[in-house]
Amino acid sequence: MAFNHGRCCDEVSKFCAKFLHREVLNHEAFSVGDVGTSMQHAFLRMDEMMRGQTGQRELASLAEKDQAKEIIEGLISPRKSGEFKGQMDCASSDKGANSDYHGPTAGSTACVAIIQNTQLLVANAGDSRCVLSRKGQAYDMSRDHKPDLEAEKQRISNAGGYVRCGRVNGSLNMARAIGDMELKQNKSLPAEKQIVTANPDIRSVELCNDDDFLVLACDGIWDCMSSQEVVDFVGEQLKHENKLSVVCERVLDRCLAPATGGEGCDNMTMILVQLKKPFKTVALNKEQLLPSNQNSECNENTVASNNPNAVPTGSQCNDNAAEKA
Question: What is the pLDDT of residue 200?
Answer without folding.
Answer: 97
